[in-house]
Amino acid sequence: MDNQKILPAAIDLPLNPKVLEEVILKAKDWALMHGVCMRSKTNFNTDSLQFAPFVLTPSLYPRKEFEKAVNLQTILNELIHKVAHDTEFLRDTLAGTIQVDEFTANLFKIYETVLAEGITQILTLGLLRSDYFNTTNNNILQVEFNTIASSFGGISSKFRLFHSYILNELGHNDKIKNLPENNALSGLCDAMVEAWNIIGNTKAAILFIIEDVTYNICDQRFHEFQIRENYPHVKVIRKTLTDVFNTGVLGSNKELIVDGIVCSVVYFRAGYEPGHYHSQNEWSSRLMIERSSAIKCPSIHYHLAGTKKVQQALAKKGILKRFLTDEEEITRVKEIFTGLYSLDKEEGGDQVVDMVLKNPEGYVMKPQREGGGNNIYGSDIPEALTTMSEEERSAYIVMDRIFPPISRSYMIRPGAQGAPTIVDLVSELGIFGAIIGTKEKILYNRQVGHMLRTKGSSANEGGVAAGMGALDSPYLFD
């Protein structure tokens, strides 16, 4: 889009080539020495790390909108909590999706199974992240809401220190005050331990469900090490869904026992995409965990509440009143919703297709998937829509495409050759929340921190773990 607003940089750019070269070397070493790292996807080795892609100078973000997102998080936590516990709403909203999307259908099957049997553990733990683009008019719009494996709380918590160091090295110590505090890691871990305390079994562990191969290892381990350092009496174990199938059982009181260890809290860092379920065994593990008395993060109903279809349904006129009673809160939530449209024939999908085909650049098609790399943008949409059956099409939703203002800086990636140049960037703000409760009662509800992911303005996907984005800090301005 040609008329995107361009924000000034936090400091005067370009940097002198010699200064740039020196500060990049320092920045890379700082990242490596503080765990701002990932494992290489091209050269995977458990003995080595490479720094995670980062933006050298922090990106401008309007203070008012940042604070709006922060202050809204506990309301969004409550909203998703209530959505997750509304069986009728989940059934109605996902009825069409489970006909056409096998993955969502498998999740739903587990949900219906535990509902029929009676849910063993009525408490749920939500570690959530609401993602926003700022618009050229300086108001935030929600991109998505993550209810499973909401990542980068660990590494992002290091970024205020990282950018403070860079600004200081470049002689801009006076600007550090505009980098907001970020305690995402401690906030997320405190909530896990709070859930562990509620169960009250001092011999039990917190179980992290992980992928077979973990590239985003530092972010995950930071959560584990934070718990072990601050709560040394709380054991943490890491297992794949396959491990749980091989060594997991339910005890006489439906306690989850994995490899001989009782697990009272289960934190999913995997299980959000089909590739994590190699066979029926992994689905059996997910069902066993769901049947157990452990507190799940997320429970199966929380996982379903995070689907794009639910996001689209919540934006429909009058729906928020079903979940929120305070009119002012409803208005505040409505303000962050962008245009979201169903492609189901019964819900006016044909008209939506006509609308999108007239101006495909103004829209994004999103499936019911987490993990990045799955969306269809702009000029790719017509071909997708014309080759899909009506049934296939209804597995997607359509969203107004948001064109955020552009910032400019240097994006530093591992293995890049030569001196970096200044590039046009757009940023996505994520706000983390933590909530614990039952259908009837919320026991714990907090906003706990933030992250900023930045990508080239021409890149469609911005996932850092998926390879397109870079980690960043918001530099607040009035």
Automatic annotation (TrEMBL):
EC numbers, comma separated: 6.3.2.3
Keywords, comma-separated and alphabetical: ATP-binding, Glutathione biosynthesis, Ligase, Magnesium, Metal-binding, Nucleotide-binding
The record's free-text note on cofactor binding: Binds 1 Mg(2+) ion per subunit.
Molecular function GO labels: ATP binding; glutathione binding; glutathione synthase activity; magnesium ion binding
Residues the entry annotates as binding ATP: 144, 308, 366-375, 377, 399-402, 428, 455, 461
Catalysis performed (reactions): gamma-L-glutamyl-L-cysteine + glycine + ATP = glutathione + ADP + phosphate + H(+)
Binding site for substrate: R129, Q220, R453
Pfam families: GSH_synth_ATP, GSH_synthase
Cellular component terms (Gene Ontology): cytosol
Class of enzymatic activity (EC top level): ligase
The keyword Metal-binding is assigned to this record: yes
Domain Glutathione synthase substrate-binding: 205-305
Record flagged with keyword ATP-binding: yes
Cofactor annotation: Mg(2+)
InterPro entries: Glutathione_synthase (IPR005615), Glutathione_synthase_a-hlx (IPR014042), Glutathione_synthase_C_euk (IPR014709), Glutathione_synthase_N_euk (IPR014049), GSH-S_sub-bd_sf (IPR037013), GSH_synth_subst-bd (IPR004887), PreATP-grasp_dom_sf (IPR016185)
SUPFAM superfamilies in the cross-refs: Glutathione synthetase ATP-binding domain-like, PreATP-grasp domain
Residues that coordinate or bind Mg(2+): E144, N146, E370
This protein's pathway: Sulfur metabolism; glutathione biosynthesis; glutathione from L-cysteine and L-glutamate: step 2/2
Subunit structure as annotated in this protein's UniProt entry: Homodimer.
Family affiliation: Belongs to the eukaryotic GSH synthase family.
Protein name: Glutathione synthetase
Organism, as annotated: Chironomus riparius
